[in-house]
Amino acid sequence: MKRPFAQTFNLFLIMVLFLTSNVPTMAMEKVAWKKILDQPKSWYGGAEATRIANNILLFQKDNGGWFKNIDMSVELDEEEKERLRKEQSEVMGTTIDNDATFIQTEFLAKVYQETHESRFAEGVLNALDYLMDAQYENGGWPQYYPIREGYWAEITFNDGAMIQAMETLKDVAEANFPYDFLDENRRRRAQKAIDQGLEMILKAQIEVDGKLTAWCAQHDRDDLSPVKGRAYELPSISGGESVGVVKYLMGLEDPDERVIQAIESAVEWFEEVKIEEKKVVRKEDPSLHRGHDRLVVEDEDAGPLWARFYEIGTNRPMFVGRDGVVRYRLADIEHERRVGYSYLGNYAEKLLEEYYPTWKSSVK
What we know:
By secondary structure, the protein is mainly α. It is built from 11 helices and 12 strands. It has a two-stranded antiparallel ribbon with strand order 1-4. A two-stranded antiparallel ribbon has the order 2-3. The longest helix has 21 residues, at 184-204. The N and C termini lie far apart (84 Å).
């Protein structure tokens, strides 16, 4: 017996609804803030990317920068949007710390490339103006601009701040995606900025007994000497932040003798100060505030480690807690800093084993 047409059609609709309800739709999916730069190219032309880009423009301050540590992918109601509009003139606090400004600028550029909406291009231009305005005449970048007095005003390699500024502007100068829509004037300004930044990097490389080593996490904004950051970040040679500096230098085409010498000297220093046959382990301990401790143990099979801070002149690894006192064992600083900060890591392992050999073979 044949079913009536209406009954057959209803069954067909039910089947279609069932199947489509189980197929994820990219346009409807929310993307976490930490993943917004890692999406397929076409996604940046969709509704979700546009929504986030509009949010980013609301969070952007009148000087072109942004505050840090804000998830700008959240849903905003009209009251929140109006509040952000009123706060756009509050520029004190805009920064390049913790990836602020870099994430937003690249995201807006990617969305503009897919949508061609002029407001997103304008946001990129304002952000790039912010970066170039923030640069000191000697080529360095402070952590905050407008200047926030204190260690925030010093030239900051810490957390990759200055190197990210250099890399962003290098992409602009070379017309790399997603900044290839920018005009020649912007590219020239970006090139001038990175030329000044390179000069500052080469001048700031720490010299000990006539030998170049590496860099501090912060350098004085005037004389480029190593300076203190937070209480536990004393003047030192950085086994962590210096890696990003050297990688940047290795990415320069046709490096001159000064750049080559800077790289070779830093690599030699990294080889000299590496820590072998030790590893950092996590030890569970419910009696402690965070439920675990961090210990350094002997292990002859362990890969090399580097300290985040090395004492200038001795190359001894430094471990400094919130009291600002230098100690030479991780175990000797307070528990909160031992587990809440990275003092030892395999920071330079890939630099020495992969990047340096590749770079060395390419240098004529």
